[in-house]
Structure formats: structure tokens, C-alpha cells
Amino acid sequence: MIKISVMRQDDDKVIGLLVEGHAGAGAYGQDIVCAGISALAQSVILGLAKHLHREINYDVKPGYLSVALKDKADDLTEAVFAVAVLGFAEIEKSNPKNVSVLNIRR
């Protein structure tokens, strides 16, 4: 199962993501659930770093991705995170045995 933790600051804006595990919905390299989650999560890193030029901490390895803002979230960073979180939620609805999304207040 892929477990996604969405870290939120006091005003509910997202400040980071932690994605752990494997969906187990298909063979390695052919798991569409894993591919969808991975594409969304990696797009957050690219959007924050390359498009918004925000400073972030991130780590990506097989079965693990973390990304966190170094500064507070704002409306633009929230838009980048929100698109991914909406996508995660839709994938979770279709694949509840393979994906779990949790919101965590920091």
C-alpha cells in the first residue's frame, strides 16, 4: 500500500508530502496506480523548484518520496500541492486497498 501523508500548517496550507510504499496493483514497472502517484508527487517537486523557484527539501528513492517547503506556504505553493492532493484523493477513491491519504497538522 502507498501511504501519503499531507503535512499542513495551522492555516491548513500544505507544507510538505511524504509518500511511502508500493501500491501492489501490478508488476514492478507496470503498476499504473504507483505510476500515477509517483507522477503527481514528482510534479510537485518540479513545480515548486523549477516553476515557482521555491527552496525545498526533498528526497526520492524507490518506494519513498518526501518534499517540504523551507519557508511557509503561500497561495502559489498551495496551488501546486492542491493539484497533487486532489489527484491522490481520486486515485485513493478508485483504489482504496492500494492508496491511503492522511492529513497531518504541524
From TrEMBL:
Keywords, alphabetical: Hydrolase, Protease, Ribosome biogenesis, Thiol protease
A single BP term in Gene Ontology: ribosome biogenesis
SUPFAM superfamilies: TM1457-like (SSF118010)
Superkingdom as given in the UniProt entry: Bacteria
CDD domains assigned: Prp-like
InterPro entries: Peptidase_Prp, Peptidase_Prp_sf
Family to which the UniProt record says this protein belongs: Belongs to the Prp family.
UniProt name for this protein: Ribosomal processing cysteine protease Prp
Organism for this UniProt entry: Megamonas rupellensis
